[in-house]
Amino acid sequence: MHIVITLIILVAGWFGYHRWSRHRARKTLLASPLTDQERTIIADQIPLIRRLPPDLNAKLEGRINLFLDQVTFVGCDGLDVTDDMQLSIAAQACLLVMNTDQWYKHLRTILIYPGAFQSLQTSHDGYVVREHKQIRLGESWAYGPVILSWADTYQGGINDEDGRNLVLHEFAHQLDQLSGHTNGAPVLNRGQSFADWERTILEAYDRHVQATETGRTTVIDPYGATGHEEFFAVAIELFFEKPAALQQDEPQVYQQLSDLLQLDPLTWPQN
Ligand SMILES: [Zn+2]
């Protein structure tokens, strides 16, 4: 009996120690700054980051360190993954979570293709499962990898004013997927009302679908009319890259995203 109790205490102690040391390592990473060389790489590849206020910059750097420690990058189709590529992706992904407690806790792997890649999609028609290939620039799986085209990742980072950013788009899906569903209804921030979020996003989505169907151009990409989850992802791209245009066209959407991410890009110096 004594041996059983001793074993239970030892196992519990080991788990406790393991948990504590992981917690300590996470805290250390979150408090660690980047090197000057890493800062230069990020500033060169993602001009948006040069506009961040210093307090946000410090938080971003800690999260980049945590991200790089957690995630394995895998090159596909012969791509050699460089440190610059890893830094660029980590920095853009962490923009979404730099000022909240949200974290990509399920993410372990990022696959990077040199450019657009073929993806095998399955659809169900009764008992028949059909498979077809699609050309994709990126994909985000809830409990699986994020897949990115490097050419489009680079282009999305270097041009921070066109409202298009592949990494922000795919990691908006990652954020959305933390709720267990991919439906444009992410886990909200403390104090946010789900009823207000739902009403705001659904009404804006319906307006956008109507505009798209009647051929009217808006600041929001027509792709956002293909589903609530895509509307959320393209709105996130605009929130960072064209905040004034989003705020002007859809002020309540801008406010909801601002409350969700605890950020206000309108107050950051513009180029
Ligand atoms: Zn998408």
Helix content: 40-55%
What sort of overall outline do the alpha carbons produce when their principal axes are compared? Answer: globular
**CATH architecture classification:** 3-Layer(aba) Sandwich
Element-by-element helix/strand order: HHHEHEEEEEHHHHHH
User: In whole angstroms, how far apart are the ends?
Assistant: 71 Å
Radius of gyration: 21 Å
Write down how many β-strands occur, each being a DSSP E stretch of 2 or more residues.
6
Strand order of the largest sheet: 1-2-6-5
Describe the largest sheet.
4 strands, mixed
Number of helices: 10
Structure classification: alpha/beta
Beta-strand level of the residues, as a percent range? 5-15%
> Can you tell me the number of structural domains?
1
- Could you name the CATH topology? Collagenase (Catalytic Domain)
Mean pLDDT: 92
Could you provide a short overview of the structure?
The protein has helices at residues 2-30, 36-45, 54-70, 83-94, 150-158, 166-177, 194-213, 228-241, 243-249, 251-261; strands at 72-75, 109-113, 117-125, 128-136, 138-140, 146-149.
Could you characterize what this model shows?
With 271 residues, the chain is an alpha/beta fold. The protein has a single domain (25-267), classed as Collagenase (Catalytic Domain) (3-Layer(aba) Sandwich). The chain has ten helices and six strands, in the order H-H-H-E-H-E-E-E-E-E-H-H-H-H-H-H. It has helices at 2-30, 36-45, 54-70, 83-94, 150-158, 166-177, 194-213, 228-241, 243-249, 251-261, and strands at 72-75, 109-113, 117-125, 128-136, 138-140, 146-149. The strands form two sheets. Strands 1-2-6-5 form a four-stranded mixed sheet. A two-stranded antiparallel ribbon has the order 3-4. It is globular and about 75 Å long. The termini are far apart. The structure holds zinc ion. Zinc ion binds at residues 169, 173, 230, 233.
